[in-house]
Amino acid sequence: MKKILLFTSISLLMLACNQKKEKIIDSNKLSTEEKKDSTNIKTLFNSALMDGKSYEWLRDLTTNIGGRLSGSPEAAQAVIWGEKLMNEVGLDSVWLQPVMVPHWVRGEKEIATYTTNGTQKNVPICALGFSVATPKSGILAEVIEVKSLEEAEALGNKMEGKIVFFNRPFDNTLINTFRAYGGCVDQRVQGATVCGKFGAKGVIVRSMTNAVDDYPHTGTMSYGNLPKEKHIPTAAISSRAANILSDDLKKNPELKFYFKQSCETLPDAPSFNVVGEIKGTETPENIFVVGGHLDSWDLGDGAHDDGTGIVQSLEVAYLFKKNNIKPKNTIRVVFFMNEENGTRGAKKYAELAKLNKENHIGGLESDAGGHTPRGFSIDANDSNTDLLKSWKKLLAPYGLHDIEKGGSGADIGPLKGENVTLVGYRPDSQRYFDYHHTSTDTFDKVNKRELELGSASMASIVYLMDKYLYNDTPVKQ
Amino acid sequence: MKKILLFTSISLLMLACNQKKEKIIDSNKLSTEEKKDSTNIKTLFNSALMDGKSYEWLRDLTTNIGGRLSGSPEAAQAVIWGEKLMNEVGLDSVWLQPVMVPHWVRGEKEIATYTTNGTQKNVPICALGFSVATPKSGILAEVIEVKSLEEAEALGNKMEGKIVFFNRPFDNTLINTFRAYGGCVDQRVQGATVCGKFGAKGVIVRSMTNAVDDYPHTGTMSYGNLPKEKHIPTAAISSRAANILSDDLKKNPELKFYFKQSCETLPDAPSFNVVGEIKGTETPENIFVVGGHLDSWDLGDGAHDDGTGIVQSLEVAYLFKKNNIKPKNTIRVVFFMNEENGTRGAKKYAELAKLNKENHIGGLESDAGGHTPRGFSIDANDSNTDLLKSWKKLLAPYGLHDIEKGGSGADIGPLKGENVTLVGYRPDSQRYFDYHHTSTDTFDKVNKRELELGSASMASIVYLMDKYLYNDTPVKQ
């Protein structure tokens, strides 16, 4: 045996031998009730990892339907797909909530190019959502590079007839990449508002990513209150192309950039939120929402954004049913429509909840990708926040250490209220902006185990919230 | 502004607006010295994320040299590459440690096939390291499926002339995938010893992976004390092929499996550990080793196993130098040779350390892939273990929550001693066995930020160990 071991990859074997049985949690430190919870949580994880359905659901959605921008035929297909799937999982009731959504279309593939030092360079760009088209012949203009809205604003009329190029990169020293995104996305959203005002001819924006690569990242933009005649075409350019253009501008400040896009905003289109629920056994009038968004951008297949959130949300209900966990409150799974460019589905859902005097006591949203679990972000009153944080000891063994106060999500956000506990699922963020809103957001970027661990993480916190939140007092908003 | 926000991806913006500045750590809870440490650790992370070199080093190693099995021309190239790189980084001294290594070669691509129900199926297999070849014409035999060494042992002479098929899969409910590996790898390592004894004709082993896919995973095996004439050919088959074969055997227990491989073990070959160091400013006679292994299996490019460990180890030294952190003890970077099939480099290193009366006070090994950081595993005496665990508050903001007692690594393991603090870097393990020892262990599977966060995590714990371990007493083994 010894001799055999000498010839093997000892490090791995050592790990194995030292810890043959995985000691998930030190049960001596738990109360009787916590031990029961710990067992139930382990059951949910085992079930997700051995019998999870989310990965195959996601494969189906992303490869057979693909990208599903609001108003598109694919979004309509996704609604049918979602309703059918919820029925297959056997939810107690499933229905569609009609909602009118914006209907922006990209049109033909965008073209961008410039010539400097005798060399013509083709530039990977894509129109931003809600942007207007260029004239059919495209636009050609000199470029002014800026790093912020303030810098652009200060240019004033100097930008007239020019293309303004926003090129402030992500701050890669921020460990949470969503914060880096938050530090840059104003350029994408508001760039055209600032520059349209002063008569710029167009706007190009560095793609929102930590990486230096060749993929333009789309996303929504706005013209604010600008009158229509001041709406100027706006596009994202890949981060590598942004670096190269910036270098070229230093050498040749008068170079002319050409781009052409044919996108347009059509009249609003009819669509739906897809809703299904497991009725609560004790207080069915109290509702927990678990959801993600069904729409996606059009460039990729909407795998991490937010196919993973959709299938994980449904898997929460699937895991409850499979393991015969009967929630005392109603668990409602919602596939929200139109998170990406309008959040109309979220608003409609909240509006109907109010209209129907529904009693929402909490929500959980998964819209930060399908990577390995890290924790949850809590938007709730202090006592409920503390309660959720106290579950760290039960959840940390599954990698869920980061359970802190913070935002929840765009789709459940409108349900906010003093006694409503909203939670955002927070997987590891390091790779998210490699794929976000690009052509590379495809099924092959999702790891089966990471996805399933996410489903189980979500199911576990829903199990705990259902059991412990509002335990003593009936809740009425 | 409000109107603009309505049209944007509100969830992400909310996150951003709530937390514009990343609050890495609550500095009110730190002592003056800890604040200084916290600042230095942040500097190391910033530096790795903004100016890290590890990703480009890894690209070079994996794409220009590729897989580098001990004794191969590529392993020899990797030694030259490593020595050159250490010199470029500007270590105080760089040298090679000669070591003789096993020299096993795969030969021609393996072939496996069987026919059942009139259909011929080609099976993805690969020879296991140290396996003998089949006869030139291959072997053809009936198959007996077993799930364990015990089950095989119990078969006794019934396996004579048969191929024994080990098919116990990973336990996917284990959160740490290394534990699942540890629960299965005995089949790969010892299967041939058990079956050769009873006259089996060959052994095939289910690949060591959590996934169900088409890639055979190689790895080392052993014939234990069996005489040469009982050495039988041994191969890994892909997990999907294992499932299919198992199904087919249920329907047709007499099907005959054919495989052919031409691998062989040549005489030991000369090779080297690559060693470089930064001399300590106060107690240079005390040495901390930081390392990974330079060799890899031949099927892929050895990216996660262990190219990432190599480049991260060197990046520790690079980050120290770049940020003018002068260790009081000597920091020695070692690219160990032959971890995969022999750990001869590790043994030689420890042997020379003893011979030269070197004073090793600790070591850090990275050989668990280049994924997002999770923590460290500590093999040390109780007081040093407690000290390292007390650094959680400084390291947790970077995702390093799992700092626990456990094994360290195969290459630094031989340095173990009462006053030696050995640490294994532990990144997230979920994706590791998708790539481990297969053709898919290539550069594109490594994420730049995850790799760099690992380098910075390692540099941070080396910084703390250098500063605080053995602070009061001079160490002599």
Automatic annotation (TrEMBL), chains A, B:
GO CC terms: extracellular region; lysosome
Where, per UniProt, does this protein localize? Endoplasmic reticulum; Golgi apparatus; Lysosome; Secreted
GO terms classed as biological process: proteolysis
**Keyword 4Fe-4S in record:** no
Q: Does the keyword Lyase apply?
A: no
Q: What is its main location?
A: endoplasmic reticulum
Annotated Pfam families? Peptidase_M28
Keyword entries, A-Z:
Carboxypeptidase, Endoplasmic reticulum, Glycoprotein, Golgi apparatus, Hydrolase, Lysosome, Metal-binding, Metalloprotease, Protease, Secreted, Signal, Zinc, Zymogen
Q: Which GO terms describe its molecular function?
A: carboxypeptidase activity; metal ion binding; metallodipeptidase activity
Quote the SUPFAM superfamilies the UniProt record gives: Zn-dependent exopeptidases
Q: Describe its assembly.
A: Homodimer. The monomeric form is inactive while the homodimer is active.
The molecule here is called Carboxypeptidase Q
Name the species this protein comes from. Answer: Polaribacter haliotis
